[in-house]
Structure formats: C-alpha cells, structure tokens
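User: I'm writing a short methods note and want a consistent example. For Conjugal transfer protein, TraA, I'll paste the sequence; you return only the structure tokens, no commentary, since I'll be parsing the reply automatically.
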Amino acid sequence: METPQVGKLRRSMFDGLKLNARPHPERPPETQDIGQDRLAERLRRHSPFEAAVDRYARAFCAGQKQREQSLPLLESQKREMQEAGRQLDQAWPGSLELIKSAVQRDPQTTRAIGERSGRGRVDHLVAGMERERAAVADPAVRADRFVER
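Assistant:
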C-alpha cells in the first residue's frame, strides 16, 4: 500500500467536476397552486361532521365484513354503529337516515363506502348524501319510493 507523499495533495474524485448550475425552470403558477391546494386539502383536519361520517363509514365497513363472512355482528360492533350514528346525527340532524338511504340506493355511495378510505371516502359519502337529499326533495322520486314501499 502506498502512502501519500507529504508534499503532494491528494485529489478528490470530484476535483474539477463542473455541474450545470442553471436554475430549474419553474412550473407554471397554476400547477403550483393546484399542487399546494391538494396538499392543503389532504392535511386539513376533518370537521366534526366529516369525522362523524368517517366514524360511521368505518363502523359500517366492519359490520359489512362480518356479514360477508356470514358471521353475526359483535356487541361491540353494534354499540359502535349506534354511537357513530348518534355522533352523525348530533353533527348534522337527519344525516343518519340520509347516509343510510344513500348507501342503500346510490351505487356510487355504496362503492365509495366499501372501496375508499380516508378523506376520499368522506368526500364521496358527503356527495352521495347531497345527491340523496336532492332525490328526496324531488316529488317524482318520493312518489316512486312510496309506491316501492
């Protein structure tokens, strides 16, 4: 093994390396805003209503998994569904019946509650509840549902 001589400096493998130090072209401002908006939306805390919707969706999915396996609901699952429903109605009166109806009648809402999670699921469920509210307000839909019953 050779030892470096005292008078000579050892060169680094990066000596003489010249990097292209031009600034990176900026993204257009509108795409920056969209990216920042998406990040801000993901980081935003749930409102009490959104938290209640999320809790109800989690409880519903747990119960649904039990039913799919032909197992009875556990007492703890029944209590959680009841508590989640109460929290949902406290956050927005009437929303428990609205979400139940939306899950039963709206295929998009049914898919969202089973296939999505987190903020995406909450957003889809709230949109489904809005569609259901609009449907219930329509006299023709109400008459059709009355005849169904």
